[in-house]
Specification:
Order of helices and strands: HHHEEHE
Distance between the termini: 51 Å
Length: about 120
Amino acid sequence: MSGTPCFAGTRVPARTLIDYLEGGDSEEDFLEDFPTVSRKQAVALLEEASELLIAPALMRTLLDECLPARLRRDLPGHEVQAVPRAGWAGIKNGELLRLIADSGEFDVFLTMGKSLP
């Protein structure tokens, strides 16, 4: 199906179940119309979707070396790493920002400085 997520062993796109429910149909209606999809598969999809909706967004955060590493305790549920642990201790300014961007490993970089508002 050209990369469209489908129920395993079928050609039924997972999105079809969501479309049915959004349209006011029941899970039973969906299963009746698509007998190759098992109830177990439909329930698993809905449970996974529910977990994704209620799970907090995980941010991959890098703390500059001018910030205390204990700040990670104030960011529960997020991946937090300090610049020295990333192997970038002593690297400054633009070079550090380039390394961070090129790595693709972090969503957020936290720093502070006297010249920053």
